[in-house]
Structures are given as structure tokens and as C-alpha cells.
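Deviation from plan, reported transparently: glutathione complex.
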Amino acid sequence: MKLYHHGSSACAAKVRFALEEKQLPWEGYYIDILKGEQFHPDYLALNPKGVVPLLIDGNLVLPESTLICEYLEDKYPAHPLLPASAEDKAHVRLWTKAVDEELHPACSALTYVVSHRHTILRNGVGDFEEFLAAGGSEGKAARTLKWQWIQEGIKAPGAANKILLFLSYMDKMEAALSQSEYLVGDSFSLADVAMAPYVNRLAALAMEPVWENGRMPGVDRWFEAVKSRPSFEPAFIKWLPQELRDEMYANGQRSWADIEKLIF
Ligand SMILES: N[C@@H](CCC(=O)N[C@@H](CS)C(=O)NCC(=O)O)C(=O)O
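Because the crystal trials were delayed, the predicted structure below was used instead.
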């Protein structure tokens, strides 16, 4: 299998996590989304949306991280990541649907306003018209929003609300994890695979105080367990270049005062 991906992409990390958990061999094609490689015509021919991840397995060319995880589960049933009962499967999918609908868009806002804006501005963003033109099929409204995140950071319209929406998912996780070992019952599942990249994103942005020091003991325990899985290093650490890791952490530290004001 071939996976087009990027080190700091939460959606790509989710798919890498599922591939590693299921012990499936894969070959990585690195698309640097902070340098605009997702808009290269060769890549747009595979994925007109100009986003990662994208999986190629035989004749199948599949975008959308949640669908990729479901496909892997259907096609390669060994090391299952879905529970047996229909009820538990439905609960897993409530998490994965929420990630697609709300948490991931909120995570994009958080990551751009806290960190990626600095990297993109340093790489050179051009003027607004150039930025709009280089957007795949993202659309003018989404592209304009991203431009505002890059130019204005946390003061961009709606950015603070997106961050609060992101953080509301930490409360939802804490409620679930105070009742059971994993997000759906006592077995690790695609719900945990789907949420791990977002908790890891907060950690990558130096925002562990959200759950540490007894604030969210369930999330704290769960994230320690997630980090101790053999799949964590190849899914989350290996592909994030040290320079970008350091930059995200430092940018997170300098934004923490603004974020803290929103939360506490
Ligand atoms: N719904 C898609 C979202 C994919 C997505 O938003 N990918 C981001 C990285 S996590 C991306 O490639 N962004 C490119 C850009 O910001 O231009 C999925 O789950 O795969």
C-alpha cells in the first residue's frame, strides 16, 4: 500500500496509527503541505481536494482518513479495531463522525493560528490572489478563512470559538474515560485511533496543561497508555521532522498565555 501523507497532519497520523496497529506494511510518499506540495498537478490528479492522506491499494485510490481506516478494517480483518457488537460499532462511529464534522476543522484553526502560520509566512505566502489561486478545489470561503488564520492568528474571526470547540472534545473524552478504559468500553478501537492525533496535537503544541496536574485524569491515563503502544513511535514520532517538531512546540509555548485565557 502507498500512503501520501505529512508529518504534522492529524488525519495522516490517524491512518498511520491504524496501519501500524493492524501491522500492515506500507510505503510512504511525503507531501509537504506547508510548502504547498499538495497543489502540485500530479498530486491533484490523484486527490483533487489537495489534502492528505491518500491511500492507494491495488486499483483503489482512496482519500478521507476515516474511510481509509474503515477500508483497512474491512479488507484486512486481522488485529481488529472495531468492536464486535453493532451497538459498540455505532458508538465508535459517533466519535469518528464527530472528528470529521467538528474536531478536525477546529484542529486546523488551532494549528494554523498557533503554529503553522509562522512556518507558512516564513516559507513565503505571496499575496491574497496568489494564495486563493493555489488552493486546489478548497473553495474561496475556506481559503479566505485560512488566509485570515495565517495573517491574524488567534484574532482572526471565529478562531477563538474553534479553539473552544476543540477543547470541548477534551471534556467529552474525560467524561468517557472516567467510565471506561478506552473511549468505547475496555478495548482499544478506531475511536481511540481517531482521537489520539488530536490529543497528541495539543501535546505537540506544548498544551499538556489542559489535562495534566489532575485536571483530566482520565485523558492523562489514556494518553500515557496510547504513547506506550509500539505503534505510537512509527505513527506519530518518526514522520515529524525534528525541526518542525521544535518549531510547533516553541510556537505553542508562546501562544499558551492566549489559550489559557480562553480556557481558565
Ligand atoms: N476529511 C479529510 C481532511 C484532510 C485534511 O484536511 N488534510 C489536511 C492535513 S490534516 C491537509 O492536507 N491540508 C492541506 C492544506 O492545509 O492545504 C480527511 O479526513 O482525510
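The first strand starts at residue 2 and ends at 5. We consider this an acceptable substitute for the interim report.
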